[in-house]
Amino acid sequence: MAEAYIVDAVRTPVGRRGGGLSGEHPADLGAHVLTALMTRTGVDPAAVEDVIFGCVDAVGPQAGDIARTCWLAAGLPEEVPGVTVDRQCGSSQQAVHFAAQAVLSGTTDLVVAGGVQNMSMIPIAYASRGATEPLGLTEGPYTGSKGWQRRYGGQDVSQFRGAEMIAEQWDISRERMEAFAYESHRRAIEAIDSGRFDREIAPYGDVAHDEGPRRDTSPEKMAGLKTLMEGGRLTAAVSSQISDGAAALLIASEAAVRAHGLTPRARIHHVSARGEDPIRMLSAPIPATAHALKKTGMSIGDLDAIEINEAFASVVLAWLKETGADPAKVNPNGGAIALGHPLGATGARLMTTLLHELERTGGRYGLQTMCEGGGQANVTIIERL
């Protein structure tokens, strides 16, 4: 049976909005991790058969197939192609899936998967939609479509509303979300101070550590913030941070491992993606996780480490309620509330951190999942070797 292996994984520090990476061209951020990956693995870059990158809002400096421009900006061989994927926040996790599937199919032996996003430069809020306004096109993905209107009507579709709907449906209080967010910062600061991230990060200039965690935050400060929506429960404190960064992994077949003398660090055990209610939008990790566990014959207790993206605290807390997972194993080094969420890069960042956490703790299986626009979620299970 064919196997797909993770040979190595590397990321930039995650920069906060307006921080140390904010002025860097996205192609240069991506080039940085590609150069680091090739250097660390020692593989001949010309042997890479494809570069698959995730990126959301691929406009301006992120346009023109950013996977390809990152590779070229790194000075790597021109004969290696690239392709860019958009599955919203799960884009670079999907890039890993596509790379693994290419290897598992037997058609490809060596693929780079990753992602990049500079949110300081290209703000969220459907930047790609706004880019068409000079052409007189103002309709977004949820307006103007007769088919969408017939199916879902004129409902407000936003991640903020979705996160609020989850908090209400699963009865998650503001206080519980703030306690979760505070713990995310505490765990992230502990991880940084103890050097847990050092091996996975390729420092970018003077930026050597993640910039997001707030050492001066407190439950009292969180309690004083205004809610994001009138009458809602969520605030900025329980939401992921706008961030900049990039990450990349080398995925190899067994034949490539032998041919290039590589030492794989993990085996990709399972990949899948599922969809759910696009109005609630952010709850798809729940059925997606159930689907993955059923398909693999595993239980939640078989997993030694779990990374679920902290788009909002309500997303993770609802998932914990439904799965019964051990909270100590979930985002043990903090999550996007503290570390940040550079949209197109986060999937690969989480996978990089998950791999290193399994190695640090001696765990065997790790699961990664994340909510995505349109009511979708990817799930990846890896096995440490």
Automatic annotation (TrEMBL):
Domain Thiolase N-terminal: 5-254
Coiled-coil spans in chain: none
PROSITE patterns per the UniProt record, alphabetical: THIOLASE_2
Pfam families per the UniProt record, alphabetical: Thiolase_C, Thiolase_N
Record-level Gene Ontology MF annotations: acetyl-CoA C-acetyltransferase activity
Annotated EC: 2.3.1.9
Keyword Acyltransferase: yes
First-tier enzyme category under EC: transferase
Active site annotation, chain numbering: 89 (acyl-thioester intermediate), 341 (proton acceptor), 371 (proton acceptor)
Domain of life where this protein originates: Bacteria
Residue span(s) of domain Thiolase C-terminal: 263-384
Protein name: Acetyl-CoA C-acetyltransferase
